[in-house]
Amino acid sequence: MLEHGRAATRLPAQDLDRARAFYADKLGLEPVEERPGGLLYRLAQGEFALFQSAGAAAGSHTQMAVEVDDLDATVAELRARGVVFEEYDLSGLTTHDAIADVVGNYPSKGGVGERAVWFRDSEGNLIGIGQPIH
Question: Can you name the residues that pair with 64 across neighbouring β-strands?
Fold first, then answer.
């Protein structure tokens, strides 16, 4: 049954007003719908929700990823809005000016890998942005 469903990400926010401001000011996103304790956002494909939570995600792994057609332009725009990107120097993952070349891709998606960046939102959630390399 699940193979006919749609995935939708849920991200915790300890301060929903602060999170709303971050997503609006830094990412240029406004919620399409809201309910008590929650904000729903839609992208060209897919959706995610921020929900009021007393807890916080560890932020030790990517909690949501967005694929874009032009990573350089996206990074430039987000930097201009004040987004600070993570830098990594790990075995198999090194960033240069915040951008990493990730080798390999799922065969069904084609290509040979992706270019990617990561940043934390106002609540500590780790968000990734990637552009497939064909």
Answer: 127
117 in Cβ contact with 95 (< 8 Å)? yes
> Beta strand pairing status for 38-42 and 9-13?
unpaired
Q: Measuring CA to CA, which residue among 89, 82, 73, 84 is closest to residue 127? A: 84
Q: Which of 118, 102, 4 is nearest to 61 (CA)?
A: 118
Residue 40: how many other CB atoms lie within 10 Å? 15
* Averaged pLDDT for residues 101-112: 81
Burial of 50 from C-beta contacts in 10 A (0-12 / 13-18 / 19+): buried
Q: What is the pLDDT of residue 74?
A: 98
Tens-digit pLDDT profile for residues 22-61? 999 999 999 999 999 999 999 999 999 999 999 888 888 9
Q: pTM of the entire structure?
A: 0.92
Residue 95 and residue 89 in contact, taking contact as beta carbons nearer than 8 Å: yes
